[in-house]
Amino acid sequence: MRSLKSLSVLGFVLLACMSFVVVGCGSDDAPTNTVGSLTDPNLMAVQEQVEALADSTIAFVLSGMQSSSAVSADGDIIPFLYSPGFTLGDQITITYVNGWHIVDLSQTTADYVFNVLDSVQFYNNDAVSQLGANADSIWYRHNWSYTATNQQASYTNIEGYAGFDFRALNTEQAVIDGVNELNVVNQVVTDQSTVVRTFDFASTVTNLAVNKTGVGWAQGCPNGGTINTTVSMSTVVDDGTAIPSIWDVSMTFTDGTAAVTVSTGSTVWSYSTDLCISVN
Fold it and tell me: What's the structural domain count of the chain?
């Protein structure tokens, strides 16, 4: 179940809230951006987690692109093909309603409850099709949540929504637009204090281009397009006042390489990284 990969995003916000410094403005003049050094410990601390944020988005994109191959010749989604993570112990309901395949999954363990509610719709020549074969467009809506069982100790709860529209699937390059949103509540309990941090991620995916290979879609690796994310954070220590902060992450893809800009306050870091192997 690919949604569990989004838990790695939490590391980004936790490291960021500890290491980023919001630079204030001492006058009425417009603030001047400070260019951060690539060897700045602040950047180095969050760099890997920033890329994990992109990885989770790409993982959801790939899940949507692969959904058509999980539909049988009779027009029914086959659970273990839809997600290899589905197990016999999970509660799974799959229906087809008003042109949408609905996948409802609940997984309960001693430590957490994990829920997925997916809606997938296939199009062929602009007409809704129950069959995934030969689909030229897919509308993919992915709702999920992860809730820790013990809410008294340290825990992390996550609610997520990813909504992607896939077009041009009948060509050599698909184009994806959509959003990936996360709400994270993290509580850390120590002998000294209880710290609760709430994070809201709002990511917009624009013109993400993925080339077709002989066996599929190159693991969802983008040849082009952008992912822009705004992160809002609120921190409360014990019964104190909430402390808010906001920062932005921008990624522009070229053949699997992302040009990344991370900013908070008036400090900006920029670098590039190879996130995946694309196909030209």
Answer: 1
CA-nearest of 77, 66, 1, 73 to 216 is 66
- Is residue 39 a part of any domain in this protein? yes
Would you say residue 74 lies in a domain?
A: yes
279 inside domain: no
Q: What is the pLDDT of residue 24?
A: 35
pLDDT at 89 over 70: no
Residue with more model confidence, 112 or 199:
112
Please report the pLDDT score of residue 11 as a whole number.
44
- Which residue has better confidence, 270 or 35? 270
Beta bridge partners, 263, equal: 248, 268
Angstrom distance (rounded) from CA 189 to CA 276 = 37
User: In a 10 Å sphere around its CB, with 0-12 CB exposed, 13-18 middle and 19+ buried, how is residue 63 labelled?
Assistant: buried
Residue 280 lies in a domain: no
Evaluate if residue 147 carries a pLDDT over 90: yes
> Containing domain of residue 63, as a range?
2-274
**In angstroms, rounded to a whole number, what is the distance separating the alpha carbons of residues 87 and 148?**
20
Question: Cα Rg for the chain, rounded, in angstroms?
Answer: 20
